[in-house]
Amino acid sequence: MAFTLAELESKQTQILTRISQLESFLSLSINHSDGSASASPSTEARLSAVLLAAGVKDFKWRRVVEDYYERGLEERRTILDASRVEQLCKSIVMVNTQAGETVTDCSDPKNSKYYVVVVQYMARLNAENIKNFLYALNEKKIPKKRFNMRLAPEEESLKLTGFIHNAVTCIGMQTNIPVIIDEAITKLEEDYFWLGGGEVDLKLGLKTSQFINAFKPFVVNCS
Hints:
By secondary structure, the chain is α/β, with parallel strands linked by helices. 34% of the residues lie in helices and 20% in strands.
């Protein structure tokens, strides 16, 4: 496809801007509104670079109070300045306990040993819906009994993602685990949701549509 000189110059400008943004985040130490010490560049800057490289432009970080998880959802919403509690989400690592003997890793997104499921805090996860989705995704060629999704043990979650409990995020994981996002999140009119940011007291907010375009998660009615 031929491009005009103006189009080529425009694309070059976009590339240079993206490189500049990545360099800024890699070297950035961000001060937060609560006046606390700057965020760890090894987490925030790294994940920011991952987001920017994937094409996600609208996102923000927020440090939360130490007792964040001891507070109710409404208080957490206020801390994050979210529009409503439905935007507060979590990333859960799930394991298929009945996968075939040859299914030991995440190399096949359609039939993976593990999945990361992004679901609202206020929702109740429906593992049966995920099972049915995976069965249909594989065109019913794999017996349904071979799908049994359960919460992965904490040590497995840590090994796969590199993130500890209450810090798990589906961005920049140590292992390329297929991601499932609950359909309910994609239907929020704000087109924005919050999830863990790789550290217990670090949260990430981003546009849902950009997240889906960048990371291509499976959208499933799983709550």
